[in-house]
Task: inverse folding
């Protein structure tokens, strides 16, 4: 492939002497669904937060569509075409479902300093279209605070898609959902990725989800990258088996 | 040499009483999340009780036991306040409890006047410690050393209590994670009550301890308030040792600062605070506040909706009523209506920052008074006409809010609130003490409206249009993308960042806009009174605005207007009675207990239920 | 201003609130609007009101003035100038008072001064001390009874000039009153004694004095004389710390207002000794007029008079005299009557000067001493206020309103 969506080289971060992420390098190509897995405390979320700009790495480089993003703020990185969902959903509880999406559209169209028109009437058709894509358009006018958790995850996905991103960062997209919902949500995500030719980097605990949808899997252990391969190869990787059998037997049982 | 040592020790002893009171405030806030405005009143009660107990009981139980008894008495009053009032409103929206504590201030002021009379009471000297010690030729009162010792004993005792006793560990756990303690099966109710006892006791002890240095007076409650808030914030919320260090730092700074700059008193303290907080936003030994630590108690706010047709009709009818008021109201009703309108706009501007913006300000009077002063200064120095001055007022308030906001919006919750109060106090002390420019306490006089507006009816219409217009603009902005972005930032900062909203800038501009609108109210105010004084920037004015917003209901858009009107009107009606503070305080407490969602919040919910039933 | 609106409001008020607006015209009384900080500083304002009520009793039992009785409508201003102005509006437009009197705090007095000038209402300021009230901000409608900051500072400076002390230190609360009091003292003392120098000054924040630290700072400059303007709780702390630290020993200490019972009495056995102060030695004034006042006061209240009491009493006497002289309650007539009005009071003859509307009521200057465990003033003399005001030419410059 000619261009990488994301090229990470030598990324490191430590907190007070504890090396959370150590010399991690990998790349992500357009249209690819890349999973980042590893036992608890392996450094997945730290890694994510560095890509997103919430944390500043100690060293290393993050090239997003051939542009260095280390030192940029989350808002700047978003502007480069990155959508993000959170492990614990972060939505606006005092707004309706549709307004949550409109918020992202307003930001994308640089209308946040506008003092004239009513926000709830702006970009509503586009917002409804996005809600339709994630399958919750019929809940458009409900307050977000009254939504079921699975539906909130869908709202987040719609919000993340609002600026037509080329890359989605999804931290535990199915955490806290019922098994059936998980499969549905990941299938939906995979469809959208195909349709829009997006790249996705996601972390996930549920190995069923990972092995069913990921094109490629990165395995992180104690801050180090120990595997970067196809699902089939990762499944058979002795080091990965060691890590999981040694620490999280249950998880590998799913696999 | 002697001079230097004595100056250091004098600073330490001045810090002692303030530390005792501040540590109590810090403990109460840490566990219960109640910002106890009445803490100064407990300090005052400590002094009065100590006066009575030492004069009657010293011969029976000794001076020091009498002091301790007065502290315990204040602790018990704290328990009564907690059980009778605060316990019933812990579930109310954030900060609502402080309205109740404001009511307690008023009640205690009048009760103290009834019990102890109007005259200042001179404290007795401590027996056995009524002389001085000679330190290299300079004299230091013995009691100063006793105060230093007392503060250190309390510091160690508190450390022991929180680190070596089960109760103390629970309190610490509760400070860090309230749900956890509940989950551990601890009786949270009594933990809170116990905390209130300890916190109030410390306030009482502080009041008692300073008695031999001065006395007991009815003005003590508000006088110490700013100092203890500053100490708590500089030290770090919830940190006892931090409070001690902060108190010492401030009073040593003062003890030596006055040698070089005698006129810098007051300003020095607040300047020190600003510097510490810029370098260490959470105070010397404080920990960063976890998001949402102010506790978004209660149901989340509902999405905004345009006013429904019946509400719209009611609103239009109400504005029509206001426009026709001069036809049948007497002159004074117009005067009162002018004040209600101005206060409504002021409260609405605070609500804008506080409710939808999530930035609680304890110092909003800085922008109200700032606008009033900007207008008055322009008139008195540049002979500007009213129209120009009124436009200038919000501009200067907006600039002031931009400056203050730049420092404050990096913080959140109570830290932000306290820092706004500190900046308001800086502004107040500059205006109060720099009389060459501002007239100081003598204020600026003769700021009357232009000829066309000097008739009361004309000024009423001017105020009506400006206030109603301002309130409608504030409301309108909440519905625009700017207002939505502000609310988005409040609801979830991480989500906002990840969709490209610049969180700090959004908060900063929203804060400035709120200050700008408060400036309009300030400009209207100064021309309605004809003069302006530092009181318009002082803590009580900021408190008024807070009480109005919370009383009305922080989660409704019409709350501030309701709160401001009810509060202003009540104040005017009740102040005819002799013991009006007792009455007003009781009434405020009653309203707090009856309407924990605020008045407008209560009727809003009622209206909702009514409509949902399809009536 | 008698238009349909007032007529209508009068009607409505008459119907709904029984007799709020009407009695001023109908009844046989003249209403006086009284505004004071009854809650903020009750120790000062309650004696004031007691003095006022005693005077009204005397005036009314003697038949009132111009055939009508005087009636007081008294309101608390909450210690806030904004509230005071609102209440003044209410007293004038709702209660229909003939004039406004009262107030203790300078800033509230000034707010009412501004109000009086704008609304053309007579305001007789009782206790506020600010010089600006009759000079820089003075106007046709405002008069002030009590000797001002400038006058009382002048009385002390006159005595200080007679003392050999050359090195002076000052301590005053850091706000307008303190600044004025120090500036006036410096100016007058310098003019009387060009050889004195001011070696140190301290400006504690009002009611937040850090007495120990500030006394230390003052004593580091080795002054021979100290001019003290602190009052209330600050004074108690200053007196106590200074005594303990032997700061006052061998120095001449002047205390502005320190001899007033409101400030001296709370200090009880720790009242400073040997300070030169202005005040009110009610216990020692033996004129027959004052005896009559004191006896009546003690009989009515079973309490002794304070400075507030005598100021309140004299204020009402002056108002009654002015109404009598004017023969009506018309504001312009009253103002004309007040200008140059002379009347007798328990403290002697008082004149409201035409040139600046300041009264010539004086103050008592003397030395503090302890007697029976209480602070008193000894070797005092009464200083008539007329002798402590600047020349007419200077006053004209100070008072732009004229």
Result:
């Amino acid at each position: 492939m000619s261009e990488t969506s994301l090229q990470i080289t030598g990324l490191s971060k430590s907190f007070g002497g504890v090396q959370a992420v150590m010399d991690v390098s990998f790349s992500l190509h357009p249209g690819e669904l890349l999973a980042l897995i590893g036992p608890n405390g392996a450094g997945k979320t730290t890694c994510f937060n560095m890509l997103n700009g919430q944390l500043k790495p100690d060293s290393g480089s993050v090239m997003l569509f051939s542009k260095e993003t280390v030192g940029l703020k989350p808002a700047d990185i978003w502007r480069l075409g990155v959508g993000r969902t959170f492990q614990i959903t972060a939505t606006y509880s005092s707004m309706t479902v549709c307004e949550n999406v409109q918020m992202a559209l307003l930001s994308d169209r640089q209308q946040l300093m506008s003092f004239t028109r009513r926000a709830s009437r702006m970009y509503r058709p586009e917002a409804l279209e996005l809600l339709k894509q994630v399958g919750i358009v019929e809940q458009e006018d409900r307050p977000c605070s009254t939504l079921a958790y699975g539906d909130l995850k869908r709202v987040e996905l719609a919000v993340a898609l609002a600026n037509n991103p080329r890359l989605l960062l999804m931290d535990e997209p199915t955490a806290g959902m019922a098994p059936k919902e998980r499969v549905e949500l990941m299938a939906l995500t995979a469809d959208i990725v195909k349709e829009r030719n997006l790249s996705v980097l996601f972390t996930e605990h549920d190995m069923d989800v990972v092995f069913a949808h990921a094109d490629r899997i990165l395995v992180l252990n104690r801050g180090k990258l120990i595997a970067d391969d196809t699902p089939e190869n990762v499944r058979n990787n002795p080091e990965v088996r060691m890590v999981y059998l040694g620490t999280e037997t249950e998880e590998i049982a799913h696999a | 040499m002697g001079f230097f040592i004595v100056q250091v020790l004098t600073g330490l002893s001045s810090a002692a009483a303030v530390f005792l009171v501040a540590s109590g405030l810090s403990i109460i806030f840490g566990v219960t999340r109640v910002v106890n405005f009445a803490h100064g009143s407990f300090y005052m009660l400590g002094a009065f009780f100590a006066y009575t107990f030492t004069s009657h009981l010293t011969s029976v139980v000794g001076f020091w036991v009498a002091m301790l008894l007065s502290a315990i008495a204040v602790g018990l009053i704290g328990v009564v306040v907690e059980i009778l009032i605060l316990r019933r409103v812990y579930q109310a929206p954030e900060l609502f409890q402080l309205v109740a504590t404001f009511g307690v201030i008023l009640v205690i002021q009048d009760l103290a006047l009834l019990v102890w009379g109007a005259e200042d009471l001179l404290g007795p000297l401590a027996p056995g410690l009524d002389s001085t010690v000679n330190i290299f030729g300079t004299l230091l009162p013995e009691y100063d050393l006793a105060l230093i010792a007392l503060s250190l004993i309390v510091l160690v005792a508190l450390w022991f209590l929180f680190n070596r006793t089960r109760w103390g560990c629970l309190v610490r756990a509760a400070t860090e994670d309230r749900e956890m303690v509940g989950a551990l099966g601890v009786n949270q109710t009594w933990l809170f009550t116990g905390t209130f006892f300890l916190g109030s006791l410390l306030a009482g002890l502080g009041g008692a301890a300073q008695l031999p240095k001065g006395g007991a007076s009815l003005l003590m409650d508000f006088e110490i308030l700013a100092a203890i808030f500053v100490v708590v914030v500089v030290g770090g919320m919830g940190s006892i040792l931090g409070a001690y260090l902060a108190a010492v730092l401030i009073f040593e700074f003062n003890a030596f600062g006055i040698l070089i700059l005698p006129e810098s008193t007051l300003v020095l303290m607040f300047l020190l605070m600003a510097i510490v907080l810029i370098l260490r936003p959470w105070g010397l030994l404080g920990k960063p506040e976890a998001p949402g630590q102010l506790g978004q108690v209660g149901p989340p706010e509902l999405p905004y909706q345009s006013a429904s047709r019946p509400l719209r009709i009611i609103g239009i009818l109400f504005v029509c009523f206001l426009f026709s008021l001069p036809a049948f109201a007497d002159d004074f009703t117009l005067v009162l209506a002018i004040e209600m309108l101005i206060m409504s706009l002021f409260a609405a501007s605070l609500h804008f920052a506080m409710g939808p913006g999530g930035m609680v300000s304890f110092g909003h009077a800085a922008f109200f008074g700032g606008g009033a002063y900007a207008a008055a200064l322009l008139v008195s120095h540049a002979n500007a006409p009213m129209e120009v001055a009124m436009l200038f007022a919000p501009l200067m308030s907006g600039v002031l809010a931009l400056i203050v906001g730049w420092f404050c919006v990096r913080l959140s919750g109570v830290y932000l609130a306290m820092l706004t109060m500190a900046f308001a106090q800086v502004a107040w002390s500059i205006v109060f003490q720099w009389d060459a420019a501002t007239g100081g306490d003598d204020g600026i006089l003769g700021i009357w409206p232009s000829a066309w507006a000097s008739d009361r009816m004309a000024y009423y219409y001017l105020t009506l249009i400006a206030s109603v217009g301002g309130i409608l603009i504030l409301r309108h902005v909440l519905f625009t993308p700017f207002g939505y972005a502000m609310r988005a930032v409040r609801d979830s900062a991480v989500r906002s960042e990840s969709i490209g909203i610049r969180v700090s800038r959004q908060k900063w501009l929203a804060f400035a806009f709120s200050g700008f609108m408060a400036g309009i109210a300030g400009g209207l105010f100064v021309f309605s009174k004809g003069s302006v004084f530092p009181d318009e920037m002082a803590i009580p004015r900021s408190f008024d605005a807070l009480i109005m917003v919370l009383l009305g209901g922080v989660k409704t858009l019409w709350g501030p207007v309701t709160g401001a009107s009810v509060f202003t009107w009540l104040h005017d009606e009740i102040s005819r009675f002799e013991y009006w503070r007792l009455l007003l305080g009781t009434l405020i407490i009653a309203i707090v207990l009856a309407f924990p969602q605020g008045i407008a919040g209560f009727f809003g919910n009622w209206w909702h239920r009514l409509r949902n039933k399809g009536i | 201003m008698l238009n349909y609106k007032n007529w209508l409001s009068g009607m409505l008020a008459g119907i709904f609130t029984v007799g709020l607006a009407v009695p001023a015209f109908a009844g046989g009384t003249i209403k006086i609007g009284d505004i004071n900080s009854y809650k903020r500083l009750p120790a000062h304002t309650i004696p004031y009101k007691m003095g006022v009520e005693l005077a009204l009793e005397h005036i009314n039992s003697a038949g009132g003035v111009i055939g009508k009785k005087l009636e007081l409508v008294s309101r608390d201003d909450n210690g806030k100038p904004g509230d005071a102005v609102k209440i003044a509006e209410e007293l004038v437009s709702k209660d229909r008072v003939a004039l406004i009197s009262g107030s203790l705090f300078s800033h509230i007095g000034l707010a009412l001064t501004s109000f009086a000038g704008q609304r053309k209402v007579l305001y007789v300021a009782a206790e506020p001390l600010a010089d600006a009230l009759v000079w820089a901000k003075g106007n046709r409608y405002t008069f002030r009874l009590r000797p001002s900051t400038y006058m009382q500072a002048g009385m002390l400076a006159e005595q200080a000039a007679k003392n050999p002390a050359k090195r002076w230190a000052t301590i005053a609360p850091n706000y307008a009153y303190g600044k004025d009091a120090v500036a006036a003292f410096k100016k007058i003392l310098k003019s009387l004694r060009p050889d004195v120098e001011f070696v140190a000054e301290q400006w504690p924040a009002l009611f937040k004095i850090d007495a120990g630290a500030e006394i230390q700072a003052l004593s580091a400059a080795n002054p021979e004389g100290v001019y003290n303007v602190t009052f209330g709780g600050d004074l108690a702390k200053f007196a106590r710390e200074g005594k303990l630290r032997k700061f006052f020993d061998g120095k001449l200490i002047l205390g502005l207002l320190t001899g007033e019972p409101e400030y001296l009495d709370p200090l009880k056995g720790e009242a400073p000794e040997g300070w030169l102060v202005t005040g009110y030695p009610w216990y020692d004034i033996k004129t027959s007029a004052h005896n009559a006042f004191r006896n009546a006061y003690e009989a009515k209240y079973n309490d002794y008079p304070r400075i507030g009491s005598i100021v309140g009493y004299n204020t009402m006497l002056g108002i009654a005299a002015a109404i009598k002289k004017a023969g009506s309650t018309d504001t312009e007539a009253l103002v004309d009557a007040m200008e140059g009005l002379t009347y007798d009071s328990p403290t002697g003859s008082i004149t409201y000067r035409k040139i600046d509307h300041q009264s010539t009521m004086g103050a008592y200057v003397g030395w503090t001493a302890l007697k029976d465990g209480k602070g008193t003033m000894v070797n005092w003399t009464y200083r008539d206020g007329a002798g402590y005001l600047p020349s007419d030419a200077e006053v004209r410059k100070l008072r732009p309103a004229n």
